[in-house]
UniProtKB/TrEMBL annotation, chain B:
Entries under PROSITE patterns matching the protein: ABC_TRANSPORTER_1, ABC_TRANSPORTER_2
Name the UniProt record assigns to this protein: ABC transporter ATP-binding protein
Family: Belongs to the ABC transporter superfamily.
Superkingdom field: Bacteria
InterPro entries for this protein: AAA+_ATPase, ABC_transporter-like_ATP-bd, ABC_transporter-like_CS, ABC_transporter_ATP-bind, P-loop_NTPase
Alphabetical keyword list: ATP-binding, Nucleotide-binding, Transport
SMART domains: AAA (SM00382)
Keyword ATP-binding appears in the UniProt entry: yes
Source organism of this protein record: Pseudolabrys taiwanensis
Location of the ABC transporter domain: 2-235
């Protein structure tokens, strides 16, 4: 009887504290704008940004959906390719020595510098933007998954050997599960990087998306609109990472049960 | 069933190398319960790992069922000091792991798994995750797992080393009951003198590095044992004798 309200209360507290932080930040910003009479072209106040959003919500929603779509496509490709690549380099030492330095080398190239090249290769459609989001995100997935696949305790590996499990069984029943906490840490980083990639892609060439909104509004010195797009990006970024965290909790119920057991 | 002659195991090469086992010769028959007893780092675990086929001997011959060991032998069950349970599977799935890895149908072994868990007093934890269990319960699950396929050879590497004394006593009794029933040939590594004497038909005492066999002692206590047997004069005689061996090796000072 006592537990339900207290669980609700602690849940409320957990989500309200970060919100409180954001609220205080916004209020200080508003006060500063009014107190020092800052020109909106330099720094619009939060109420102005909010009014900008309220004036054309459908249009902003459309741009947001487009950018989120690009982000998720790039992220999805990065997860699929990244996990497969990590499995390959962990399972076959020779391929690791062959491919990993090349992969690190390619990753050291600033991806933003590749964007114009992708326009030449893939045209001005969605593909180059997804490709940039993918390229920026994939490194985190590979590094963290490979680390996770190697994190199997020695006793567990000995057990698998004495049970004469096939390599596939060991991979599917042991290594992938061991890798999951690391994998999800990597996915959170990859998700926020994919969003960066999508925006970069839209900067380079686009008629849609939040990146395009920022660039075109900047061209017209419409600072309020730039801030409106940035505000959406901040919210979207938090929401996407939270979504990964929710999938993480669902995918690892044994971790969840440990939380319950620990308190 | 097991025949080891002049087994040597060296780690590393040249002067920097360490000799872990130096000429181990040992024969173990079907149905025996043999404890390998010695101080930490005496190579008893290494010998066990050689038998399990996860370590290869540097010299000498090591036969299981007349065949030289190269890789884990048929019908092997093994238990480890850290229970090596898989956190992401529930208790039942963990116990069924040998069937799964052996390419057998898990459903066929579920009754056996449940029976073992019931004998270990874990009926109500069949669907719990390992993290929800105490250390003693986890080791019981690991014990059930190693017995699932009715192994012909059970190798146990200090399985109760990390447990408190009371839990350890209880698990000794449980293990005795489970292995007695099946007459499973068991090799049990420990550094506890009373645990070794209580469980075994034979206790093989190892010297510190390099590991050599100091004495091979037959334990003539009744086959069925209860904890009270530890208060008997015979039991005390065995433990006193073994402690004497350790004193002679300079491992215990009074």
């Amino acid at each position: 009887m006592i537990e339900m309200p207290s669980a609700l209360w602690s849940g409320f507290r957990r989500s309200s504290v970060p919100l409180l932080g954001a609220l205080v930040f916004i209020i200080l910003w508003e006060i500063a704008c009014r107190l020092f009479a800052i020109r909106p072209i330099l720094l619009p106040s939060p109420t102005m940004v909010l009014r900008e959003l309220a004036d054309s919500p459908a249009w902003f929603a459309e741009q947001t959906v487009y950018t989120v779509g690009i982000t998720l496509a790039g992220f999805g490709a990065a997860v699929v390719f990244g996990v497969l690549f990590a499995i390959i380099i962990v399972e076959w030492k020779l391929l690791e020595r062959l491919l990993f330095p090349l992969f690190v080398g390619l990753n050291s190239v600033p991806k933003v510098a590749l964007a114009p090249l992708f326009i030449i290769w893939f045209g001005v459609g969605d593909t180059p933007k997804v490709a940039i989001a993918f390229l920026i995100a994939v490194f985190a997935v590979v590094i963290d998954t490979a680390l996770g696949l190697r994190s199997v305790p020695p006793d567990t590996l000995d057990l698998a050997r004495t049970l004469r499990g096939s390599r596939l069984k060991v991979l599917l029943r042991v290594k992938l599960f061991c890798a999951m906490p690391h994998l999800f840490a990597g996915l959170k980083v990859a998700m926020s990087l994919a969003l960066v990639g999508a925006i970069v892609g839209e900067f380079v060439s686009s008629q849609r998306g939040l990146g395009y909104v920022i660039l075109s509004a900047q061209g017209m010195f419409d600072t309020t609109r730039v801030f409106a797009a940035i505000a959406i990006l901040a919210v979207v970024g938090v929401a996407l990472i939270e979504a990964v965290a929710i999938v993480e909790r669902l995918a690892m119920p044994w971790h969840h049960s440990a939380d319950r057991g620990g308190h | 069933m097991i025949r080891a002659s002049d087994v040597v195991k060296r780690f590393g090469k040249g002067d920097k190398g360490v000799t872990a086992l130096d000429g181990i010769s040992l024969e173990i028959g079907e149905g025996e319960f043999v404890s390998l007893l010695g101080p930490s780092g005496c190579g008893k675990s290494t010998f066990l790992r050689c038998l399990a086929g996860i370590e290869t001997a540097s010299a000498g011959t090591l036969l299981v069922d007349g065949k030289a060991v190269d890789g884990p032998p048929d019908g092997l069950g093994m238990a480890f000091q850290r229970d090596a349970l898989l956190d992401w599977f529930d208790v039942l799935e963990n116990v069924l792991l040998p069937a799964d890895f052996g390419g057998k149908r898990k459903r066929d072994f579920e009754p056996r798994a449940r029976e073992l868990l019931a004998m270990a007093g874990l009926n109500s934890f069949v669907n719990a995750y390992p993290r929800e269990l105490s250390g003693g319960m986890r080791q019981r699950v690991a014990m059930c797992r190693s017995l699932l396929l009715d192994p012909r050879l059970l190798l146990m590497d200090e399985p109760f080393g990390a447990l408190d004394a009371l839990t350890r006593d209880q698990l000794n009794v449980d293990l005795h009951r489970l292995t007695q029933r099946q007459k499973t040939t068991t090799i049990f590594v420990t550094h506890s003198i009373s645990e070794a004497v209580f469980l075994s038909t034979r206790v093989v005492v190892f010297s510190p590095r390099p590991g050599r066999i100091v004495e091979d002692i037959r334990i003539d206590l009744p086959r069925e044992r209860r904890l009270a047997v530890r208060e008997s004069a015979e039991f005390a005689g065995y433990t006193r004798h073994i402690r004497g061996l350790f004193e002679k090796m300079g491992l215990i000072h009074d």
